[in-house]
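Record type: monomer structure entry
Structure origin: computed from sequence
Chain ID: A
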Amino acid sequence: MQTKGGEDLGISDIIAGFIQQELDQAGGALELQRADLAQRFNCVPSQINYVMSTRFSPEHGYIVESRRGGGGYIRITRVQVDRQTLLMHVINSIGDRLDAASARAIAQNLVQSEAVSHELGQALLSATGARALQAAPPENRDALRADAPQLRQQAGFDHNYCLDGSGFRRAAVLHGCRSHVTMEVWTDQPGMQLFTLNHVPSPIEGKNGKHYRAHGAVCLETQQYPNAVNEPAFPSCVIRAGETASTVTELRKLETPPSRAMDLVVMWELVLGAA
């Protein structure tokens, strides 16, 4: 089945959409019968159970009470929880594997409940989607969605990214959902380190008395690949005696709306000479 826009919808999406619509009309509490749902959508009852467990679980903001006897009724109640509780429910419920459909449902629910912004929801969808994980073997992708070992070990991001393309080009875009400020990073370097201030034992006092805590900042450092000197396949970082190397990185600030002209706020130009 397709939406008006032509996007393919699976049977689980269709059933979940129907239940959510019925919940809206019923004011957030609804009783349904498994057999009736299965007959309506011409599916087996186990399909209904799958939808209940993946789309209407507590971490998605629902309480499901199932009465298998007496007609197989299901009572679904939409509950309101604070943002912190909802996020902790999601984190604690993921386990060691997360399939693409469940990841999409979690991201959509977080946006719908306003626990995260629409922009962050889109980022979550991108990070857990097929394109982001295409380099991983299919049998490992669900495990990677659920847990990235490098993120866990570093308590955040401290990763080098191999940038697409060559020459001076845009490497990254940061957008502040509250400030509505966007920053672009342009560089001629092959790599960029993303660091998220992971290990801060106590708040650090910064500008104007502002206190910075762990994960309170993000740093984008354009660079050569780590250990490039020992990896022949990497772009060379060797500067020999008498040679001169130069590199340019620009940080460009954009005000919302994006159509406004960019202001160049910082330019780094490093001229490195070998002894």
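Annotation 1: The CA atoms of residues 200 and 214 lie 5 Å apart.
Annotation 2: Helices lie at 11-26, 34-40, 45-55, 83-93, 100-112, 118-128, 141-146, 149-154.
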